[in-house]
Design a protein that fits this description.
It comes from Melia azedarach (Chinaberry tree). The chain is α+β, with helices and mostly antiparallel strands. Helices cover 39% and strands 17% of the residues. The structure holds adenosine-5'-diphosphate and magnesium ion (MG).
Amino acid sequence: GTIALSDLDKLQVLGHGNGGTVYKVRHKRTEKLFALKVVHGDTDPIVRRQVFREMEILRRTDSPYIVQCHGIYEKPYGDIAILMEYMDYGALDTLLKKTGTFSESELAQVTSQILKGLSYLHAHKIIHRDIKPSNLLVNKTMQVKISDFGVSKIMCRTLDACNSYVGTCAYMSPERFDPDTYGGNYNGYAGDIWSLGLTLLELYLGHFPFLQPGQRPDWATLMCAICFGDPPSVPDGVSDEFRSFIECCLQKDSSKRWSASQLLTHPFVCKHSRCDC
Ligand code: ADP
Ligand code: MG
């Protein structure tokens, strides 16, 4: 049945974001734990828009690799809240700090689950656009799920193409309408793959790949490194499979990057898990 907000006890804060707070909550009757993301009514309209987008995506998705949504609460000018399954190990950034860097085989288990989540999203024409350790949640059985759809994009091809085109649609090339079929601008989805590559490298190295350990991010330098430098590479001593996997993700030319479903068949993923390929 449906859960009312008044059926829940707030236990503690799990995380703060821009505009919202995520609480650990307990259902009074069943004592079951959940996570509740709350955005207050007086927050900036941009943040409210992001939460509405997140709700829209959580309503549409149903996958073991995407955080599950149990309820959505909204009032026209009031607080907005999203009730989610509680992931008791928190996000991968917390786990990295708590338990240290990941081994290749641990990473392969994590990778396979993120890839299944991404291939589900991409097949449903959703681009996450914010894949990073703090948006990947883990529970004690080491299930990994994608969360935080605040800046995600739902690709509504025809409408999107028409809306962004000043003039008439009649003269537009096929790939402007349907890039998946006609192999045009594939960048949107490939962006998630780049972010996945950086995330995995960070979990392996223990620090963000474009920065030295402990170095404070300076956005101009970072942007130059990303745009004009070589992509980060794996250190010596890793397996050929891991090296190759990271290279398949961190191609600067987005058309050379592998897709999520291609990466699921990569030896790095297959070697360590019972693969489906
Ligand atoms: P923001 O948009 O503010 O980044 P997130 O949805 O990423 O919000 O949540 C912020 C943090 O809260 C996460 O990095 C994670 O540590 C924690 N968190 C979010 N959802 C859950 C959940 N379902 N279970 C456990 N912790 C969560
Ligand atoms: Mg987040």
